[in-house]
Specification:
The protein is α/β, with parallel strands linked by helices and about 325 residues long. It has a domain at about 1-180 and about 230-260 and about 300-315: NAD(P)-binding Rossmann-like Domain (Rossmann fold, 3-Layer(aba) Sandwich). The protein is built from 11 helices and 13 strands. It has helices at about 10-20, 40-50, 60-70, 85-90, 95-115, 145-165, 200-205, 235-250, 270-280, 305-310, 315-330, and strands at about 1-5, 25-30, 55, 75-80, 120-125, 170-175, 180, 215, 230, 230-235, 255-260, 265, 285-290. Strands 3-2-1-4-5-6-11 form a 7-stranded parallel β-sheet, sandwiched between helices. It has a two-stranded parallel ribbon with strand order 7-10. Helix 7 (about 200-205) packs across helix 11 (about 315-330). The longest helix is centred in the first third of the chain and has 21 residues, at about 95-115. It is globular and about 55 Å long. The structure holds nicotinamide-adenine-dinucleotide and uridine-5'-diphosphate-4-deoxy-4-fluoro-alpha-D-galactose. The site of nicotinamide-adenine-dinucleotide (NAD) has 28 residues, from helix 1, helix 5, strand 5 and strand 7.
Amino acid sequence: MSLLITGGTGYIGSHTVVELLNAGDDVVVVDNLSNSSTKSLDRVEQITGKRPVFIKADICDKQAMQDVFSTYDIDTVIHFAGLKAVGESTQMPLEYYHNNVTGTLVLLDVMKQFDVKKLVFSSSATVYGEHNVSPLVESMPTSATNPYGQTKLMIEHILFDLANSDADWSIISLRYFNPIGAHVSGLIGENPNGIPNNLLPFVAQVAVGRLPQLSVFGDDYDTIDGTGVRDYIHVVDLATAHLKAVAALSKVNGCMAINVGTGNGTSVLQIVNKFKEVSGVDIAYQISPRRPGDIATVFANADLANEFLHWHAERDLDDMIRDTWRWQSQNPNGFE
Ligand code: NAD
Ligand code: UFG
């Protein structure tokens, strides 16, 4: 029996593949390499001594997905594959809806055809929209403010409807907060194309001299120091949450959404100062206007993950920043 990991050469996928291989699982990775390369799997092999099966395929390609399911004895799917840049999604909505929503529909159709009905899906805290007050709880109303967020919300609706229609499905939708950090080896990490949109890769690239300075988007929010507060979670803790979720699928009849965060909020300036402390490098920054669509504070209530998955975040902010810095300083140009 194998686990199929869509998007397994990407940032969160590659860290999860490491944990699965270390746990002795058989892993089949499908990725179209639109935002990654197989170099991450070379590094996964360096870390674990094992190489997962890799198939270059697009999840929208039904024939290719059918070939995967007929070739390998797939038992469970962890579905990471998707486009994820919020700003880009507002410029290219059709590509985002097609890739994320159609891709998921094709995957689900093929899973159904092959009677594979266990799924862990990569959702996002973005589904809480802008009106809920943190700590965010799974029972709160959901909404979306951009096409990327809409795709995550639509997919969650599809998963709930599917599970309601057929009791054989067991689905967990993990709502990630802000994944950062890298594997402790420094061999794999986040490798964004072009100028990073997210805070940590941006700060890390300032630290290695690839970018001149950080723009801090707003210092007049109602937060500890006026800058935005988020729930940063170490990518390896996030990876282990997937293993716990796979194990918990046997307890799930239907579809469940579960937050994966630490429950702690950290501001932009706290991140900048911590990065300076850990790396010894000064991070040049300027205060800039607020970024449209941003909200002041987002952090999780992580009780359900703690109780239902028996999962707790084990790594603190020092670990997250130290591991980000190790990855970035050892690989200033990513996998190149
Ligand atoms: P990533 O871009 O590093 O990984 C996604 C992978 O999916 C890439 O390797 C890409 O090549 C692949 N992919 C995209 N479309 C595909 C398709 N049609 N067919 C096959 N492969 C395809 O991103 P990540 O940060 O590892 O994110 C993984 C998942 O987690 C995504 O679904 C993302 O939306 C979700 N998520 C990420 C964050 C975050 O901050 N990183 C937060 C919440 C949710
Ligand atoms: N920030 C800056 N400067 C930057 C980048 C970010 O000040 O150059 C600030 C933002 O304003 C925010 C914080 O840093 O206060 C974190 O921003 P990120 O872009 O790293 O993360 P977001 O919380 O905005 O977005 C992330 C994911 C989205 C997801 C969202 C909600 O990138 O995909 O969390 O889960 F939708």
